[in-house]
Amino acid sequence: MTAQVRSTAWHSWGGNLTARPSVTVRPDDSDQVLHVLEEAVAAGKSVRPSGSGHSWSPLVPTDGVRLDTSALTGLASVDEDRQQVTVFAGTTVHQLNLILEEHGLALANLPDCAHMTVAGAIATGTHGTGLGQPSLGDQVIGVSLATPSGDVVTCSETHRSELLRAARVHLGVLGVVLTVTLRCVSAFRLHCAEFREPVAGLVDSLQERMSGADHFEFSWVPGTSVAHTRIMSRLHRLSATYTRPASPISRALRRTDDAVLRTSLSAGLGRVGALMPRAVGGLNKIGSMAVSSRRYTDISYRAFTASRPVHYVASEHALPLEATAPAFRELKALVERDGYELTFPMHVRCSPPEQGYLSPAAGRYTGWINLRQYGKRPHKTFFRAAEEIFVAHGGRPHWGTLHTRTAEDLASSYPHWDEFLALRAELDPDGVLLGEHTREVLGV
Ligand SMILES: Cc1cc2nc3c(=O)[nH]c(=O)nc-3n(C[C@H](O)[C@H](O)[C@H](O)COP(=O)(O)OP(=O)(O)OC[C@H]3O[C@@H](n4cnc5c(N)ncnc54)[C@H](O)[C@@H]3O)c2cc1C
């Protein structure tokens, strides 16, 4: 088969998914992608594209053809005046940030990690935080896709705009994404202020705090009464002379703080907690106390993202903004009542209403609650119990994280569900790009 490479087992970043595809291909360009699709159709095989494997839900695993997009990378074109960039689908968010920096540009908002690919990230509705700033998908203004029928289909805000809305959160079922065009902004810096504060008072004024900041997020370590808040403010474009005094800790010091206190410590706590589950509560208190308040200024993409050396599993839900505080209180009570031992903090973020048909934040201001657990510790019972709370508050699952919802209960919470399914059926009538999980969540 075209572009075939040695087919070894595939593992997700979180370590919770493994697959052994019958064929793995790594096409170099669009023509090779089209050939792969043609050959798969002829052989009656299904095809699942894969990005960086950063999803926890089984979107990628297949026993058919895994289409590795890691050779489809780099800049296709940039228009500095119109502040638009087109990159190949397998470009990572990190590579994209560096490309944009060279052209004096940046993305307006980013997720907290930069290792996912651009096509993979938009597939699942990857978001950052901030009520006034779009997720990755809403910064997309054009997509080109290779379809199993051998066509390259394009869409933009003026050409097939309904397909653009579907492609903004595509789940890898509309076609193999070849290129993505994004609207950018001028490069900017962020001032970050991180504090420890009582979690109860913070949750009481959550909506106000979220709407009062450019980018607001907080995390809470179970077993403690303290929240760690992070407020990021977009700086005006002044020369370096003006902005330098706003950065009282250097980047080197912050990275040491991140590596030693915030990640190694939680890795250590996770490992010790896996060996001595009863110690988790006490360890969490130590970990929470070790994280200090700090302020710093940095280039936007460096402030938005951090490295994630400790692997974990996650379940995240998008809630109507006003339901976020009540849902958080119920989750906190659940953890405290049932004594679930979580070795990672719960993380709360927010986003504006989104355009993508299947965006979990579609059509409403959204609060995101993210639950994480060290990979070797039990998570299923807690994630299930938490999901009931999320569902009761109108939550929609993040497509890339763990959940148990199926099409039957998801369809009614997406106003444009049928439009998405109609476009999928038009572009891939024989379901070549469907896998077991996508069939289940889409009901096709
Ligand atoms: C450490 C870490 C931090 C994270 N932080 C955030 C965060 O801050 N915010 C957030 O919302 N999410 C976050 N996530 C989740 C992550 O962004 C999503 O799961 C994302 O989809 C992963 O992208 P990927 O490149 O790894 O794609 P994969 O997980 O490999 O694939 C995801 C989907 O994309 C499809 N796909 C990939 N490439 C193509 C292509 N070229 N054409 C068609 N389909 C394609 C796949 O078929 C699959 O359906 C995080 C995950 C991790 C592990």
In terms of structural class, how would the helical and strand content be classed?
alpha+beta
Distance between the termini: 28 Å
Q: What is the helix fraction of residues, given as a range?
A: 25-40%
State the helix count. 15
What integer is the average pLDDT?
Answer: 91
Q: What share of residues are in beta strands? A: 15-25%
The CATH homologous superfamily of the largest domain is called FAD-linked oxidases, C-terminal domain
Label the overall shape.
Answer: globular
Protein name: FAD-linked oxidoreductase
InterPro entries: ALO_C (IPR007173), FAD-bd_PCMH (IPR016166), FAD-bd_PCMH-like_sf (IPR036318), FAD-bd_PCMH_sub1 (IPR016167), FAD-bd_PCMH_sub2 (IPR016169), FAD_lactone_oxidase-like (IPR010031), Oxid_FAD_bind_N (IPR006094), Vanillyl_alc_oxidase_C-sub2 (IPR016171)
Domain FAD-binding PCMH-type: 17-187
GO molecular function, one term: FAD binding
